[in-house]
Amino acid sequence: VSLLLLAAGAVVSGLASAVDDEALYTCGYGDRLTVGFPSANTSIVVECGTTVPYSIAHYMDTPSFSFGEASPASFYTLAMVDPDAPSRSDPTYREVRHYLVGNIPGAALRRPDADFPDTVDVLSDFVNPSPPEDTGYHRYVQLLYSQGNSIIAFDAVPDSVTNFNVTAFAQQYGLGDPVASNYFQTQNECSEDYGQCGGGNNAEDPICCEDADFSCFEQNPYYYQCLRACPDDDAWACNQA
């Protein structure tokens, strides 16, 4: 395994700007990257534009990523970005960085739903999708780049996650075009006060966000409701903690 040290200002010419490259955000590069939500009670399969309910997207833990075509001898960089911030019609914050991980062993990517080993470099922790109200659907794009057989000494990325440019980042480290990609979309949705909300076996229902005084309370794995407080009833799971 070689150690690749690249200066922060290094640029590889010939790649399109991420700001102008819509193919980057619509599975236009590489093969299909498998994306799953093991922390959520759902069997949703992401297929280039799958709509994921806000109650899942906003509260899920880090998704799982796998790529059966990954070379066991290679290393990879994974990025997840939102190109539609604050809205798809006015993406002045393009891109928002939601996850960035480098030096992922190919062998780890070949295992379905496998956790990444501790040896990877998490350059930017996972940030849940949180599109603002009334901005429509946002795309959350997952891009996998090959590092070849090289481990890269990455520079720290800026603290701000807005106006990230994944293509410029790929250029900086000579990663080329993505070898695999996928994306899902979600939008801000709310349950009505006293209505059913997302959780457990109803994880695909909207969350409680119409009124700040209301929260989603569990009665049982099959029923959650938007209420001001947990009911004074031992049958509700929120009273059994």
Task: List key phrases describing it.
about 240 residues, mainly beta, 7-stranded mixed beta sheet, 3 helices, about 30% strand, disordered N terminus
Biggest sheet: strands, sense, closure?
7 strands, mixed
Strand/helix succession: EEEEHEEEHEEEHEEEEE
Number of DSSP strands? 15
Question: How many helical stretches?
Answer: 3
Average pLDDT taken over every residue: 85
Structural class designation: mainly beta
Tell me the Rg in angstroms: 20 Å
Helix content: under 10%
Low-confidence stretches: 1-19
Strand content: 25-35%
Question: Could you say which overall geometry the principal axes of the C-alpha atoms support?
Answer: globular
Report how far apart the termini are: 50 Å
